[in-house]
Amino acid sequence: MRVLGIDPGSVKMGYGCIDVFGDALTYVEAGVLEASAKAPKYERLVELGCDLEALIDELRPDQVGIEAGFVKGQMGALMSGAARGVAAYIAGRRGLPVREYAPATVKKAATGHGAAEKDQVAALVAKQLGMHGVPDLDAGDALAVAICRARDLGPRMPTTPRRAKTT
Fold this sequence. Notes:
With 167 residues, this protein is an alpha/beta fold.
């Protein structure tokens, strides 16, 4: 089974993809979709949505997890919610099951500690997945969301494991 984790933002949207075979988690790909910070807010959301749609078509996940971010300030909360809505809508349009997780739940699932800092999350996720380097902080958060989603689903054995994408 392939799981895509998303750390939504209105300028940067982290993504992390893993394959799950029983209890084994395998790194597939992670990165950051980025919109022009100077573009009007709704144009940024459209740009991120289009990029996410293409990414989902490329990676073909079976499940999607989205982090329900904590944001200070009313406008930040509104834009963060809009970015989560775009991500959920795009995944839902593709017929994918979507689950949202609180940041503390994501951090605890990935690191064992619900108050871990972003750099700790990225480092521990990289170690768990056997990565050769530490991912960008937004990509690290997204990989943590994917791990959280995989653990929430419990051990499920697909008929055949997928091969990791080589880069």
